[in-house]
């Protein structure tokens, strides 16, 4: 079955540690996205990538980094510079030139202790 | 700036009652429009979308939405609510193919027995 995989589902880290969230898709989609979701808030775009080896900052990129070395993979690193990293992180993908309909992964809940 | 507004962050209905979730966009140019549903601790799932053609769009789980250009609206409805409809619903818009999605703040739907 085609889809988007995010692992792990739950992640715990100590304050000051960098942590990398995984996102893999086998839909052959060109574009991939990372969103952050906080309780009672909507989705905020962190980074997105429309092509391998290229990515753009979203609305809240500070304290985060990404890479896009393969079409199917778009990992997100939450660095120690992110002041409030505890949140639910969602990865999505889409076909370029097709209304930008995005398909979402199941999400990773990160808790920083 | 182009934006999406969902009126009512919380909506409560009785089981069997009409569900109406409101979404308006701000732009003189009509966008592509989407409704997504999110169950607790899960990713977003596409309910329905409007791209071109018929303005009344039917989606999954008995939901439908009507695009009204004159009102810049895309309200989501379901004739009879079911307990399983309790979730958070997001309206989203995209103004050009390949561009990012703009999300509303979300509406939490509660269904009372």
As a percent range, the share of strand residues of chain A is over 45%
- Uncertain runs of chain B: none
**How are helices and strands ordered from N to C of chain A?**
EEEEEEEEEEE
Q: What fraction, in percent, of the residue positions of chain A are helical?
A: under 10%
- From the N-terminal CA to the C-terminal CA of chain B, the straight-line distance is 41 Å
SSE order of chain B: EEEEEEEEEEEE
Low-confidence regions of chain A:
none
Overall morphology of chain B: globular
Helical run tally of chain A = 0
Tally of strands of chain A:
11
What overall form of chain A do the CA principal axes indicate?
globular
Q: Beta-strand level of the residues of chain B, as a percent range?
A: over 45%
Say what oligomer this is: heterodimer
Q: What structural category characterises the helix and strand content of chain A?
A: mainly beta
Helix percent band of chain B: under 10%
Number of helices of chain B: 0
C-alpha Rg of chain B (nearest Å)? 13 Å
Mean of pLDDT of chain A: 93
- Please tally the β strands of chain B and state the result: 12
Q: What is the CA-based Rg of chain A, rounded? A: 13 Å
Summarize the largest interface: chains and residue counts. A-B, 28 and 24 residues
Brief characterization of the structure:
Chain A contains no helices and eleven strands. Chain A has 113 residues and is mainly beta. In chain A, strands 2, 4, 5, 6, 9, 10 and 11 form a seven-stranded mixed sheet that branches.
Describe the structure in your own words.
The complex is a heterodimer of chains A (113) and B (113). Chain A has 113 residues and is mainly β. Chain A contains no helices and eleven strands. In chain A, the strands form two sheets. In chain A, strands 2, 4, 5, 6, 9, 10 and 11 form a seven-stranded mixed sheet that branches. A four-stranded antiparallel sheet of chain A has the order 1-3-8-7, with no helix packed on it. Chain A is globular. Chain B is an all-beta fold and 113 residues long. Chain B is built from no helices and twelve strands. Chain B has strands at 3-5, 10-14, 19-21, 24-26, 32-38, 44-50, 56-58, 64-68, 73-78, 87-94, 102-103, 107-112. In chain B, the strands form three sheets. In chain B, strands 2, 5, 6, 10, 11 and 12 form a six-stranded mixed sheet that branches. In chain B, strands 3-9-8-7 form a four-stranded antiparallel sheet, with no helix packed on it. A two-stranded antiparallel sheet of chain B has the order 1-4. Chain B is globular and about 40 Å long. Classes of the chains: A mainly beta (113), B mainly beta (113). The interface between A and B is medium-sized, with 28 and 24 residues.
């Amino acid at each position: 079955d085609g889809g988007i995989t995010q692992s792990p589902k739950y992640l715990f880290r100590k304050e000051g540690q960098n942590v990398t969230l995984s996102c893999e898709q086998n839909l052959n989609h060109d574009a991939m996205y990372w969103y952050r979701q906080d309780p009672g808030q909507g989705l905020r775009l962190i980074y997105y990538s429309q092509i391998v080896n290229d990515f753009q900052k979203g609305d809240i990129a500070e304290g985060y980094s990404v890479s896009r070395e393969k079409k199917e993979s778009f990992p997100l690193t939450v660095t120690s510079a992110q002041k409030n990293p505890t949140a639910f992180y969602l990865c999505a993908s889409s076909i370029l030139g097709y209304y930008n309909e995005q398909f979402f992964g199941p999400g990773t809940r990160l808790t920083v202790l | 700036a182009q934006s999406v507004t969902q009126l009512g962050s919380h909506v409560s209905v009785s089981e069997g009652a009409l569900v109406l979730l409101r979404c308006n966009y701000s732009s003189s140019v009509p966008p592509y429009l989407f409704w997504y549903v999110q169950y607790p601790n899960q990713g977003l799932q596409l309910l329905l979308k409007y791209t071109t053609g018929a303005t009344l769009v039917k989606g999954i789980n008995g939901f439908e939405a009507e695009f009204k250009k004159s009102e810049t609206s895309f309200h989501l409805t379901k004739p009879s609510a079911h307990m399983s409809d309790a979730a958070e619903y997001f309206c989203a818009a995209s103004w050009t193919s390949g561009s990012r999605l703009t999300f509303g703040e979300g509406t939490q739907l509660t269904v009372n027995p």
